[in-house]
Design goal:
Blueprint (H helix, E strand, L loop, with lengths): L3 H14 L3 E3 L11 E3 L1 H20 L4 E4 L8 H6 L1 H4 L1 E6 L6 E3 H27 L5 H7 L1 H22 L3 H10 L16 E4 L3 E4 L7 E4 L5 H6 L1 H7 L6 E10 L14 E11 L4 H17 L8 E5 L9 E9 L2 E12 L1 H10 L5 E3 L4 E3 L2 E8 H12 E5 L5 E5 L10 E5 L6 H12 L5 E3 L5 H11 L3 E5 L1 H6 L1 E6 L5 E5 L3 H10 L1
Parallel strand pairs: 3-9, 19-20, 19-21
Antiparallel strand pairs: 1-2, 4-5, 4-6, 7-8, 9-10, 10-16, 11-12, 12-13, 13-16, 14-15, 17-18, 21-22, 22-23
Helix pairs in contact: 2-13, 5-7, 5-8, 7-8
The structure holds glycyl-adenosine-5'-phosphate (GAP).
Length: 506
């Protein structure tokens, strides 16, 4: 297809044109990095959440779900470390007045070097043909080795600076690398400063002595503060998990790339409580289990990779990202963190309440360790949308735009289309609709030529179209068209439900 930047622009335009995502408050020129989900988008988003919930809660007898409030006692965020440490290192370009995350500027620079390595590989592949051995080339080619060493040095300096909060060293790195502002092209940089990402507001009236409270920046803390309530009322035995889906808010300074980085977004998080010392075993388990979940959606293994953190968050002793190949490159889709007993211990300390677990097998009490899986609903949505957006050249020379979404997540599962608006075909089609709509999101449409209607369904990712024609009136059969192959088969009306169920299960 076209280059990735073009593709991304098309995906964004498609999301609006076909009712998936709208800019928030668009009539007032929008609100930066805030988006609304439209009629088709909300169906896809709900299906993503349901699929995650089923796989995490319904499929695990030792995981339960909760739904906690967005507002929490302000001490929560003191205990969790977010008041003191939830910030990004930012740098301003004095000429363009644009603000950037210092680490992102450096990472973008590294991505360019990685691009050079990829180009070398492509060139060598062409030169050596079948005899080309990529692994050997990457380990021996002098230009590749020099670039790899460069990346290693930069990473060492970057994570060294950020790890020790040495913001001067972070600025020096940007200067030494000669990084210029992408907007002004100038290298006239301010100092690097830390900005806290939490939104705050007031609860209660000022006269009563209003309290500053925060909009939660992650859903996880709602799970931690309820850990004992759930453990006791659910009679949960370690190891066990608590899952939650909900909104989170971050005052992202550099909000860009559509719904990839938003100020209001949604997370699907699960905290898994384990015995101290068992956390690495469970960390590996959840890495594998979560990658299998992604695999089950059929978006090709090569579009995913793990990226282990070099700079660990204040609460973690191991962390990795599952990165997805978005049109703008590999970026974090999901985080898996071994959070130690940091959060529960901190809440014990700040609340003066014991958050222990009595382990009958060990006959001792301890603060459990936690392994967390955390995925952004919106990022998953973007991964699905950008991966499934395809422009296909057809045999007759025309092009069709199709969303090859996994059938189980598609907004509509089936469209019911009478071939014409007369001869009793709409009535027959509506009978079928009445039968199916209890089980599936169905789209009914009789306007325009059938080919045009198929295209509209392709563009919103509907996996099956049922067409009711004159033969349907004679022998109670219809055609079912597959979105991806565009092939049609004739089936009995009584079999439609079972055929669709089987195809969705696939
Ligand atoms: N409780 C751990 C936690 O919040 P995180 O890596 O900061 O970890 C988890 O966030 C996931 O939430 C990310 O992998 C990403 O998918 C999503 N996410 C984070 N910030 C986001 C933002 N500003 N916009 C959209 N999604 C975001």
């Amino acid at each position: 297809m076209q280059n990735n930047e073009d593709k991304f622009k098309k995906v964004v335009a498609h999301a609006k044109e076909y009712g998936f995502v709208f800019q928030s408050s668009e009539i007032y020129d929008g609100l930066a990095a805030v988006y609304d989900y439209a009629q088709n988008g909300v169906e896809l988003k709900n299906n993503i959440k349901e699929y995650w919930w089923k796989s995490m809660v319904q499929m695990h007898e030792n995981i339960v779900g909760i739904d906690t409030a967005i507002f929490m006692h302000p001490t929560t965020w003191k205990a969790s470390g977010h008041v003191d440490a939830f910030s990004d290192p930012m740098i301003d370009n004095k000429d363009s007045k644009k603000r950037y995350r210092a680490d992102v500027l450096v990472e973008d620079y590294i991505a360019k070097i990685e691009g050079k390595i990829a180009k070398e590989v492509k060139k060598a592949e062409k030169r050596f043909g079948d005899a080309f051995n990529e692994a050997e080339f990457l380990n021996t080619n002098p230009r590749v080795l020099a670039n790899k060493e460069k990346i290693e040095d930069i990473n060492k300096r970057l994570y060294g600076a950020l790890g020790s909060n040495d913001l001067e060293a972070a600025k020096q790195l940007i200067i030494d690398l000669g990084i210029a502002c992408p907007v002004s092209g100038s290298k006239n940089w301010s100092d690097v400063r830390q900005f806290n990402l939490m939104f705050s507001t007031q609860m209660g009236s000022t006269a009563d002595g209003a309290n500053e409270i925060y909009l939660r920046p992650e859903t996880a803390q709602g799970i931690f503060v309820n850990y004992l309530n759930v453990q006791k009322t659910g009679r949960m035995k370690i190891p066990f998990g608590i899952a939650q889906i909900g909104k989170a808010f971050r005052n992202e300074i550099v909000a860009r790339q559509f719904i990839f980085r938003m100020r209001e977004f949604e997370q699907m998080e699960m905290q898994f409580f384990v015995r101290p010392g068992d956390e690495m075993k469970w960390y590996e388990y959840w890495k594998e289990t979560r990658m299998q979940w992604h695999d089950s959606l059929g978006m090709s293994e090569e579009n995913y990779r793990f990226h282990d953190h070099e700079k660990l968050a204040h609460y973690a002793n191991a962390a990795t990202d599952i990165e997805f190949k978005f049109p703008f490159g590999f970026k974090e889709l999901e985080g898996i963190h071994s959070r130690t007993n940091f959060d529960l211990s901190a809440h014990e300390e700040h609340s003066n309440k014991k958050l222990r677990y009595f382990d009958p097998e060990l006959n001792e009490s301890y603060v459990p360790y936690v392994v967390e899986t955390s995925i952004g609903v919106d990022r998953m949505f973007l991964a699905l949308l950008s991966h499934s957006y395809n422009e296909e050249k057809l045999e007759d020379g025309s092009t069709r735009v199709v969303l090859n979404l996994p059938a189980k997540l598609a907004p509509y599962k089936v469209a019911i289309l009478p071939l014409t608006k007369k001869d009793g075909l709409p009535e027959k089609a509506r009978e079928i609709l009445a039968e199916l709509k209890m089980d599936y999101m169905c789209y009914y449409e009789e306007k325009d030529a059938i080919g045009k209607r198929y295209r509209r369904q392709d563009a919103i990712g509907t996996p099956f179209c049922i067409t009711v024609d004159h033969q349907s009136l004679e022998d109670n059969t219809v055609t079912i068209r597959d979105r991806d192959t565009m092939k049609q088969e004739r089936i009995s009306i009584v079999d439609i439900n079972a055929v669709i169920a089987l195809k969705i299960k696939g």
